[in-house]
Amino acid sequence: MYQRILVPLDGSQRAEAILPHVQTLAQQFDATVIFVRVVDVEPVVVPPAGVPVVTVPPKLDVTAFVDEAAAYLESVAQPFQGAGLKTEVRTPQGEVPDEIWQVAAEDNADMIAIASHGRGTLAQVWYGSVASALLQRATMPVLMVRSPAEK
Q: Is 9 exposed, middle or buried (0-12, 13-18, 19+ CB in 10 A)?
């Protein structure tokens, strides 16, 4: 039924709460698991108080960010590969929900599996808003689990 399962991760233990569920599904359906970590490198410039902002953000060399994201995804993929599952990794750059959606479309994903933090603090809003954005645009099944608090 499911041949290509897309799994967006942000590097947190909370996001990784989806992994056991994905592994079970991938084994049951002999599915390929596509791990995605979006590299969002918009620089944040905070001017001193009272100074008008007329700054052009510096160009960043994103190579190190992309390499780090790929290394992280490869480490997450290893247990899946060890269990005989097929995996792929993607490290697109840009707005998180848009890039996840684009990878899902380009890679013909037939399911998105994601953990939602489901809380309101600033550190947790990011992934909750991503999950919400994916649900609003979904034209395919979305498996969402609520992750436990990070230790």
A: buried
43-59 b/e (C-beta count within 10 Å ≥ 16 → b): eeeeeeeeeeeeeeeee
119 vs 142, residue with greater confidence = 142
Q: Please give the residue range of the domain that contains residue 78.
A: 4-41+58-146
What's the pTM value of the predicted model, to 2 decimals? 0.81
Structure tokens at 107: 């890679």
Cα separations in angstroms, 76 against 63, 104, 148: 20, 19, 19
Task: Report CA-CA distances (Å) from 33 to 10, 22, 53, 60, 62.
Answer: 16, 8, 44, 30, 25
Write phi, then psi, for 50 (nearest 5 degrees). 85, -5
Total number of domains in the chain: 1
